[in-house]
Write a structure and sequence with these properties.
The structure is a homodimer. By secondary structure, the first copy, chain A, is of the alpha+beta class. Chain A contains five helices and five strands; from the N terminus they run ααααββββαβ. Chain A has two domains: about 80 residues, Arc Repressor Mutant, subunit A, CATH 1.10.10; about 45 residues, Dna Ligase, domain 1 (2-Layer Sandwich), CATH 3.30.1490. Helices cover about 45% and strands about 20% of the residues of chain A. In chain A, the strands form two sheets. Chain A has a three-stranded mixed beta sheet. Chain A has a two-stranded antiparallel ribbon with strand order 1-2. At the A-B interface, helix 5 and strand 5 of A face helix 5 and strand 5 of B.
DNA sequence: GGATAATTTGCAACTAAGTTGCACTAGAGT
DNA sequence: ACTCTAGTGCAACTTAGTTGCAAATTATCC
């Protein structure tokens, strides 16, 4: 995990960005928590590490990290923006309606076939998709 | 279409709710526009009909209409709440990233099989899902 | 048709997520 | 250590949505 951490900080440096405590902490946090996180969650995670960051800063850093390609933004259907390492494969989400926890899943089923059909039938050019399952996780049932 | 309109107003009355101009207009609007609409869109649609409704009222009416089962709420991945007649079959959405228009599609593929797999593998009880495709509609390409 | 009681509505004030401008601070290279 | 630019924090703002309360309107009963 520490390897990945270093690699991402290098990437940041190569993109001409400075290495600041907040950026370091954000990247470290993304490496340690593989789940997609909201800006608010990130803010409190930083606080736990003793870093009192401002929300403006977090939002701005997230934007930059997305641009560089270190993380990716996911718009969840529960109307929250979430962020996770973009190195991860494309996957879908299980959202627990009780405890709000989010799990990642990889479906073997491919939606490519569907997207081709949509092109034929609707002449709609699909660029990306979002698939989420809502329900109860094993703890909350 | 007028038939459906009357039927829904009857349903509203039977549920013990009063028939007001705003409710009448909302239901009429849902019958005439089959696409999922945001509260803001509904507000401007009412205005076009000469009904200057308040946003508070619209939000409250939407809540009631959802409870009665006349309409259903859909949380879109573009982080907008949208509403449509709940009588419609379950379907998925094509969201144009340029003009923001939303189309409905029915996939013949069923996700039930996937949901059963999720239950076996993750012990996650799926209650509902959301599948959206983002891209460019035929006009915007 | 008119009085009454309860529901519906509108207003204003509020919350939460996110954004913007500007002044201050701190990294990185010399 | 100095300097210049990038990064940060603050305050003020925006937008979607919510809440409490007073005023208006609906359905009902006579």
């Amino acid at each position: 995990m520490d390897r990945l951490n270093q690699k991402l900080i290098e990437k940041l440096k190569k993109s001409g960005e400075r290495i600041t405590p907040i950026r370091r902490a954000l990247i470290e946090n993304f490496c340690n928590h593989p789940k997609p996180q909201t800006p608010q969650e990130l803010l409190t995670n930083l606080e736990k590490k003793g870093l009192m960051a401002n929300k403006t800063t977090v939002y701005r850093q997230l934007e930059i990290l997305v641009q560089i390609g270190i993380i990716q933004e996911i718009n969840f259907s529960d109307r929250s923006k979430r962020y996770e390492l973009s190195s991860k494969d494309h996957h879908h989400h299980l959202v627990c309606q009780n405890c709000k926890k989010v799990e990642d899943i990889n479906l073997d089923n491919d939606l490519d076939r569907q997207e081709k059909k949509i092109w034929k039938k609707n002449h709609f050019k699909v660029l990306q998709h979002s698939l989420e399952f809502f329900g109860l996780c094993n703890r909350c049932q």
